[in-house]
Design a protein that fits this description.
single chain, 255 residues, Nucleotidyltransferase, domain 5, 5-stranded mixed β-sheet, extended
Length: 255
């Protein structure tokens, strides 16, 4: 039994994607009759996960370990009062949740999307952000040159699975937030008006809006010093600042 044990461990070491049933099958092909449960016990006793993913990196592990170096992007659509369909391209940083609106257009041509990639690279360099990966879906609006420009700066494009929006969940969640807090409450006249509104929302999102993932801080603004003066707490003087004609509200202590 000792030699069979060694063989089982050898198979597990040399083939990290094999599960215990795959190892059991390989032994059967060699004429070695052993119960699958025995293979399971041998692996468990050796501290090896009998599951077939013991040494592979899951998508959740990848997102967690590479968060500081991860970007994600996506296209989403909105419609103006005249019925014109506009396409918006945005990028978010996984770790900080900082959003970047790369542009909005009715015609996302290959040249337009390529220029958006160049602008993103310049902005990242100016901000001193060293990204390694960018997650995007398989939308045909991304030309090959889009990926090539990012690759030249050391950013590898990671494609999501087909019909698997959860693989880009952080970006998809931001799109939902943008729709609920801005686009569903704003009448858009034209591309210029849309871009102005998006820039205002971008500034609000990055510098004021709290995020649970950041401990209720903002991407570009940390928590202020806590209010500890009992007199100040008892007589709070909070002022409201309206943005986009009252679509967005921000609150501050009076000076």
């Amino acid at each position: 039994m000792r030699s069979i044990r060694q063989l089982v461990l050898r198979f597990a070491k040399e083939n990290p994607n094999w599960g215990y049933r795959r190892i059991h099958g390989e032994l059967a092909m060699l004429g070695i009759k052993i119960a699958a449960s025995t293979v399971w016990e041998i692996l468990r006793a050796a501290g090896i996960d009998p599951a077939p993913q013991r040494s592979t990196t899951t998508w959740a592990d990848f997102l967690h370990t590479q968060a500081d170096a991860l970007l994600a992007c996506d296209f989403f659509e909105t419609v103006t009062l005249t019925g014109t369909r506009l396409h918006v391209l945005a990028v978010i940083e996984h770790a900080s949740r900082r959003i970047r609106i790369l542009g909005a257009t009715a015609h996302p041509t290959a040249a337009w999307v390529t220029q958006a990639a160049r602008n993103l690279v310049i902005d990242l360099e100016d901000a001193g952000h060293h990204a390694r990966f960018l997650i995007r879906d398989r939308d045909g609006m991304y030309p090959r040159l889009f990926d090539a420009i990012l690759a030249d700066t050391g950013i590898k494009v990671v494609l999501t699975g087909i019909r698997m929006p959860r693989m880009n969940a952080i970006m998809e969640r931001w799109v939902r937030t943008c729709r609920r807090e801005l686009l569903d409450r704003t009448l858009i006249w034209n591309p210029h008006h849309l871009l102005c509104a998006l820039r205002e929302f971008e500034d609000h999102y990055n510098n004021h809006r709290p995020h649970r993932a950041l401990g209720q801080a903002s991407p570009l603004r940390s928590h202020p010093e806590p209010v500890t003066n009992p007199g100040q707490i008892a007589h709070l003087n909070i002022r409201r600042r309206d943005r986009l004609s009252g679509t967005l509200h921000e609150y501050h202590h009076a000076a």
